[in-house]
Amino acid sequence: MSKIKLGIIGGGQLGSMLSIAAKKLDIQTIIYCDDVNAPAQNFSDEFIFGEYDDKNKIQEFVGKVDVITYEFENIPYETLNEMNKSKTVLPKPSVNRLIQHRLAEKDFVNKLNIRTTRYVEIEKKSEIETLGDFLPGILKTTTMGYDGKGQYPVKRIDDLDTLNIDFSKGFILEKLVKLKKEISVIITRFGNYSYEIYEPIENSHENQILKHSKIPAAVSKKIFDQSVGWATQISEELKYIGTLCVEFFIDRNENLYVNEIAPRVHNSGHLTINAYNVSQFENHVRAVCGLKKIPLKKLSNAKMINLIGKQIEPYRKNLKLGKNEFFFDYLKKEIKDKRKMGHITKLL
Ligand code: ADP
Ligand code: MG
């Protein structure tokens, strides 16, 4: 049988790690990305550079692959839908459309009777003046946000005067949760009631960017079970195929909230590469390519540290690693502030 050819839209570190996992399974990867320097081309079999609405380039890509997936959610729905007419796109384009829009995503979660933060859609600045109840809060763009981009903390209504926000973009205002902890649950769904679930991961952020992840998460059994249950319910309801991540908040009164869903592999799951028999990346590739599901086994507790901006430099200069430490360099051309450049996983 000839090798399966997996198309991956997006060429960042997640695309790299998906390509590495695919290679291990003898699956070929073709990356499509709008960044000519996309780091994932260092790890994939082929690379096509093109915009996400370039019909000709996209046709070329679709013609080369058997099945298509993606490593980030901000892809136009029309593009995924068009691709899905000739080759299967997984997760389904409609799932991505729902999740890439913060308002639709939160409405969906609430309909399942799962708690989210309190939120309201904002179309005009003047609306916020009547929404004191939601302050202190965070104003977020409804689309295209990641790593805290497109987010504005609002303590008092007056804060808006100094922010200079373009409200034509579409925003939600979210009430700030008094955070005790943040966790995430990663699940790979293969089909009806067929899953592999990773145990909850405890995450800490600096400047709204993930800095550390670790397992086990120091949470009660109730929170453990509720987070795993909600992630399972969400993936089943979406009829999801592949790896999905649910980010959660835990407040100071031990209430659990869904923060957001990522319809893809997730930064907090990098530690699954070294801490489990099958990583979130391999499981994603297995699910979207229709390969066998392997029972998941945890091999070790672990901690992952993101290297942001210049933090990568000492590691590039051959900093000695311990026996149970693993360094991953994303091979991004340019070091930039707030840019995720690599990570370290330590088995504990
Ligand atoms: P992104 O898409 O950038 O990941 P998130 O909504 O996950 O956006 O926000 C990033 C981080 O900002 C969260 O992980 C959390 O630390 C903080 N944050 C966001 N919204 C809230 C909130 N309503 N209450 C408390 N902290 C929040
Ligand atoms: Mg987030």
Describe the structure.
This protein has eleven helices and 18 strands. It has 348 residues and is an alpha+beta fold. The chain is globular and about 65 Å long. The termini are far apart. The site of adenosine-5'-diphosphate (ADP) has 16 residues, from strand 10 and strand 15. Adenosine-5'-diphosphate binds next to strand 10 and strand 15.
CATH topology of the largest domain: D-amino Acid Aminotransferase, Chain A, domain 1
What distance lies between the first and last C-alpha atoms, to the nearest angstrom? 41 Å
| Assigned CATH class of the largest domain | Alpha Beta
Which distinct ligands sit in these coordinates? adenosine-5'-diphosphate, magnesium ion
- Helix/strand-derived category reads alpha+beta
The fourth-level CATH homologous superfamily of the largest domain is ATP-grasp fold, B domain
Question: Which stretches of 5+ consecutive residues score pLDDT under 50?
Answer: none
Instruction: Describe the sheet with the most strands.
Output: 9 strands, antiparallel
* Form type: globular
Helix-strand sequence:
EHEEHEHEHHEHEEHEEEEEHEEHHEHEE
Indicate the proportion of strand residues.
Answer: 25-35%
Number of strand elements: 18
How many DSSP helices?
A: 11
Give the total of domains: 3
Relative helix content: 25-40%
